[in-house]
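Record 1 of the preview.
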Amino acid sequence: MYIPAYYRNTDLKEIEGFIRENSFATLITTIDDMPFASHIPMELSLNSMNENVLCGHLSSANPQAKAMKNGDSAMLIFQGPHTYISSSWYNHMNVPTWNYIAVHVYGKIKLMNDEMLKTSLHEMVNKYEIISKKPFHVSDMPPDKMQKNLKGNQRFRDQHG
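->
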């Protein structure tokens, strides 16, 4: 993505905050040398070595999940607010433009085991259920139902720098 120098933000704390607040991302990988995208929530967290990782999951029926392997390259796009800027807003002659905030993250896929997925699901559900009047808790799900759902998901972490 082209970013003019005067718009570039390199403040890692601000970028992390943006990802946390705009966690519904576009995951892009390749299948047979063609780009493939899925739109999924991705949660930013720290791994055991205190490194940033992004965690998400796809339905195992998704062709992207079926093709995904450890070490595959991936791109995630996090989008925030955007708006059209009319030429009439300027005090000088200029072309219209579009203002937006987006973060692109590049990394490598690391498939998660069942325990890692359970932890990831707990964290994600807790994050979004906190505003609910009757919050759902993953731990309330019967074990057989949980196991069935785990089998239906391909889970991965995107290790990035």
